[in-house]
Amino acid sequence: DSILSACRTAELSETHGYRFISSGDEPLLVAGVGTIGLEVMEQVEGLEAFISPVGSGTGAGGSSLAVKTLDPGVETIAVQAEGAPSVYQSYKSGRLESTPRAETFADGLATRKAFRLPLGLLREYVDDFVLVSDEEIKAIQLSYSGGELSLEALRDKYMTLVRQMRPGADPWME
Fold it and tell me: What are the tens digits of pLDDT across the range 33-49?
């Protein structure tokens, strides 16, 4: 269990004078994983929407900060597995929330606890936050199996997902 592990690690750090590096509340970690937002902005001219998966929120928070800093007009959307909604619930309530379980096959998104630093970034730089089912995640994942996928095909797959989550949404088309 990652929460119990983090508590034990923090305890050992205090006892022995080690530096505890949080998996979620570490500014340099957030800055590092947030560089994906910089890379996307450098490579995609005229980006209208940026969709980011959320586990603990470090990547989505850091990336959204980068994207919005470079172009405040880009719509930023965070997506979390509905079976592990702690960060989504925290985003909506404005308080750090945890859940008793994280039940999703997407283990990179399976977090039971929100962290202060990424939550602050998400609340400031994310325009919309949605939950998706494992079935929806698998549908996107299937688009990667079978070899290379063009940017256009991937964009269309994501837009289908966005339209299902938010009827009438069409940030890239038309």
Answer: 999 999 999 999 999 88
Classify burial at 46, counting beta carbons within 10 Å of its beta carbon; exposed 0-12, middle 13-18, buried 19 or more. Answer: exposed
What is the distance between the alpha carbons of residues 165 and 46, in angstroms, rounded to a whole number?
Answer: 23
Q: Which residue has 């929460």 as its token pair? A: 3
- In this structure, what token pair is assigned to residue 83? 């079976």
Residue 79 structure tokens: 């997506």
Note the pTM of the prediction, 2 decimals: 0.77
**Distance between CA atoms of 144 and 166, rounded to whole angstroms?**
23
b/e 124-140 (16+ beta carbons within 10 angstroms → b): ebbebbbbbebebbeeb
The count of residues in the chain is 174
| Rounded alpha-carbon distances, angstroms, from residue 97 to 85, 92, 115, 148, 157 | 9, 10, 9, 38, 31
